[in-house]
């Protein structure tokens, strides 16, 4: 998509609508409120999907462990809420089939847990295979590419949205270590695209992408209960350009969706905040270096995950290409076995994340508060390590999956374990000068606070998100007091991850999948020039006269192109402009209906303005009004770094290369992305060869 022309068309359309003589005041009001109404509609749909998905995921996750007799859709915690004695309503599968106290009770529960985990994961993958392959994976990378202007047919379709929602509920509830936030962003983009079809003004591509961005932001807002975080996420991660209208639409969509969720309130919490925390005291200044150290560790751990995950994905591609559902079936079984025997591993990862943020009190019933600090710390390290390995393998399998919640949970486990260690250290050496702030405080160090910092820092290490993540963590916990430690952890995690040269998971995935996305943060340091990009490439061009309908149809049949450069003639090659293939087809269809006898393959097309010296003949069609004469041009010697800057700044789909107005070449955004990737790959291979052939390497051998 060409942002410049699409934005110009949008401005012309709005000007035309304002100048319509017969436009009533009611129609004018409707036109002005269309953006607001469309965002509200998308938000309501997303809120409903969020409520259904939350309830379904909770049911799937809880159903693996057992059943509540009177309320089968409830897990053990909700089924037995308020009961101090043994809960008679809830049965594990071993108790249900073998009876309570039976010797095979534990084995029966284990078999059912693994079987149901495997079945849910397999059905999720099979649904993607049967109904929409686009529903697998996270979707954030592809949504970023679509919002930047690229077209992917059926990726935002209705079947994709339904399959993604259904598969996400099963995959996240099956125990496979994947998250729901990436899928929710994809679902939100689908909702935005489908909602845009209900409103006439969203038929233009640039306008439609405003609502797609708003829907994606609303999807993240629904997943975290963080409307402002969703808006900043859309600006920081999804959008290539700042657009105030997109900002407002995203905010309206996110707030509407979250308000709908809180109004329904299926868990009867009475709060918008998912994991509200209320600690007895604030953090201390001696903890700031500890938060920074935790951030560095989490940033390195997140980068380690990125490296391992992409290596597994590359290893998987040739081996499981035709066995993707089978692979997920095996993964579901292995995950079920490991989760069953892992401390804190049997329940929902999202619910356990909320427990990690809490502070233990004498009346706490949380599982992580039932053992001594040292035992809990060891269990958290075991659980976090196993979850990290499962997480690294699961993301990239053929089922709906996201990175955010698993990264948060794993970071929170390591963070809480670190907090427990610091608390034990403080209690053992209370007289040391750095702990002087802890006088008269029984529990000076709060492990839950370290879990919050570790969660945010780990996710930064994985994704390189910063500003939006700090806001999301605040909205997720409602803890404004710990915003400074979270920001410190995030900044040091980002610094550590970037310091070792590992990119974020989204950038790695975009490069691996060769998606035509031009990162607005992209820099290119190379001496190449514009003519190097198109060297050896042949171009299909049109001349001002002597082009026929049949000739253009033959060109379009040979290769799917978006448009053609228009030259004066093939000898002088004076560049007159650029014409869109889509506009040519539309104009010819209109001319065919207008003309008596229509147009045939022998009809000539003129792309220059007729004059008295060269009048339009009866066998010619004037298409000069379609030629874009104000296109972007550069010299062949223009540095590629400057060409990159033009693409990033102006959002053009293509740039003409001309020398003294004579056509030399044509650079599309895809051409530039492919060229830069090839250069970077060659430089990387040269570095590997230099390292392999270095004297130090030879000496080691």
From TrEMBL:
The chain crosses the membrane at residues 36-55, 211-235, 288-310, 322-342. Its main location: membrane. The keyword Nucleus does not apply. Signal peptide: none annotated. One of its GO terms (molecular function) is voltage-gated chloride channel activity. It comes from the Eukaryota. It is a multi-pass membrane protein. InterPro entries: CBS_dom_sf (IPR046342), Cl-channel_core (IPR014743), ClC (IPR001807). Pfam families: Voltage_CLC (PF00654). CDD domains: ClC_3_like (cd03684). Keywords: Chloride, Ion transport, Membrane, Transmembrane, Transmembrane helix, Transport. GO terms for cellular component: early endosome; Golgi apparatus; plasma membrane. It is found in: Membrane. This is Voltage-gated chloride channel, putative. It comes from Bodo saltans.
